[in-house]
């Protein structure tokens, strides 16, 4: 391991993901860290007198030279040798900015050292959203502020700035959404910052929670559902698209989402090992509500089971190539709706439609919540222990929607009404 020099640091290339280190060959624990953005930071790794491993930042490369960083590292190691812990000094509330605190949170949570809901490590998907809000909104608006000096007015001011579009960006090259602000985005960003500050206070990075009492904007709750007429139109669009070159996998996912009420990620990412088609249930090892068993109706189970298996791909709905799952169901749904003039529909609309149809059939709110996965069934129980009312509800709801998609809803309903009248 060679001694760190300007040339060796300049030659360090950023990783595709995560972080890489280049360590000094002369001074143990002294090194430089690089992240995918190309940012290089001098760090010092050491053990305290109690044997605890610590890693602290010395400064950014470019602002600090290699020699300056090495001198600073020697000073810190001298404190360690004297029984002190430099990391405790750095955690002083006066010294840490919001940006530094956010970086600490992302790093610690990424290593599983910060526990979230149900006292479990924060999920990678949740952390990715947190990181996006931090980089897009929090750092540009509050990153340079000292965390301990924040007040309620600062946080609510950030919220207002996001709504006003101060952190909006024009669309760049490639795919992906555009940060444009709005009450929902602003409220979720405030929630992320509050989470960061709450964890920091609990773990003694700052003294107290500086944003207690902040009021978050109420988001616009999505209530759009498909009417029975629109479900029939969607069925017509599916049949037409099937004959005219639309992706059969995309069509299958759209149909499956409507027949189950699954979230988009749950439907697209469904794996064969989770599907128990004969018993009409899916055993998710992990969802937004943790591991759970989700009952599905016969038509949905048959649809999933009928998908062709592609090589070693573990997914029920595979992508066109490779061993990943299909990801373009949202675009497929948009094309279907455009064919028949249905507006304002997203994958979540299909989920809301499933719940609404269950409500139309007379099932209780508690049963509907269970159908949608808000009230999890234990995976250890097995399907036979799922409530009989839930089995009945998911079957009737699924088959009602399947009938509407096939254009048979009115005839079936008229036949039921005729029998009841007789």
From TrEMBL:
Annotated keywords: DNA integration, DNA recombination, DNA-binding
CDD domains recorded: INT_Rci_Hp1_C
Molecular-function GO terms, alphabetical: DNA binding
InterPro entries: DNA_brk_join_enz, Integrase-like_cat_sf, Integrase_catalytic, Integrase_DNA-bd_sf, Integrase_DNA_bind_dom, Integrase_recombinase_N, Phage_Integrase
Residues in Tyr recombinase domain copies: 221-396
Ranges in a coiled coil: none
Family to which this protein belongs: Belongs to the 'phage' integrase family.
Protein's name in the database: Integrase arm-type DNA-binding domain-containing protein
Source species of the chain: Halodurantibacterium flavum
Higher taxonomy: Bacteria, Pseudomonadati, Pseudomonadota, Alphaproteobacteria, Rhodobacterales
């Amino acid at each position: 391991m060679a001694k760190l020099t300007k040339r060796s640091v300049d030659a360090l290339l950023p990783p595709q993901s995560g972080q890489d280190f280049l360590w000094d060959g002369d001074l143990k624990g002294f090194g430089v860290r690089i992240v995918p953005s190309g940012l290089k930071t001098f760090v010092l790794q050491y053990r305290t007198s109690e044997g605890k491993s610590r890693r602290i930042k010395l400064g950014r490369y470019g602002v600090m030279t290699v020699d300056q960083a090495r001198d600073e590292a020697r000073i810190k190691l001298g404190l360690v040798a004297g029984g002190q812990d430099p990391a405790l000094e750095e955690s002083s509330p006066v010294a840490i900015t919001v940006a530094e605190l956010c970086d600490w949170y992302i790093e610690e949570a990424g290593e599983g050292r910060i526990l979230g809901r149900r006292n479990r490590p924060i999920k990678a998907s949740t952390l990715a959203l947190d990181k996006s809000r931090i980089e897009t909104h929090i750092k540009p608006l509050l990153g340079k502020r000292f965390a301990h000096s924040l007040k309620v007015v600062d946080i609510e001011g950030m919220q207002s700035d996001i709504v006003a579009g101060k952190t909006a960006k024009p669309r760049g090259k490639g795919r992906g959404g555009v940060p444009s602000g709005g009450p929902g985005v602003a409220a979720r960003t405030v929630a992320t910052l509050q989470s960061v500050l709450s964890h920091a206070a609990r773990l003694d990075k700052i003294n107290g929670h500086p944003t207690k009492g902040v009021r978050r904007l109420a988001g616009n709750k999505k209530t759009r559902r498909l009417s029975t007429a629109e479900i029939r139109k969607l069925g017509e669009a599916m049949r037409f698209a099937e004959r005219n070159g639309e992706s059969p996998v995309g069509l299958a996912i759209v149909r499956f989402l409507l027949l189950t009420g699954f979230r988009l990620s749950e439907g697209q990412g469904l794996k064969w090992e989770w599907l128990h088609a004969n018993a009409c249930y899916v055993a998710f090892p992990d969802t937004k509500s943790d591991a759970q068993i989700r009952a599905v109706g016969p038509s949905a189970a048959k649809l999933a089971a009928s998908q062709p298996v592609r090589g070693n791909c573990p997914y029920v709905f595979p992508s066109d190539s490779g061993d990943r799952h299909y990801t373009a169901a949202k675009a497929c749904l948009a094309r279907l709706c455009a064919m028949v003039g249905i507006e304002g529909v997203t994958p979540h609309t299909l989920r809301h439609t499933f719940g609404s149809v269950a409500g139309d059939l007379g099932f209780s709110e508690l049963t509907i919540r269970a159908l949608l996965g808000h009230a999890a069934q234990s995976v250890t129980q097995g399907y036979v222990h799922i409530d009989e009312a839930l089995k009945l509800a998911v079957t009737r709801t699924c088959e009602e929607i399947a009938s509407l998609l096939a254009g048979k809803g009115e005839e079936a309903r008229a036949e039921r009404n005729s029998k009841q009248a007789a």
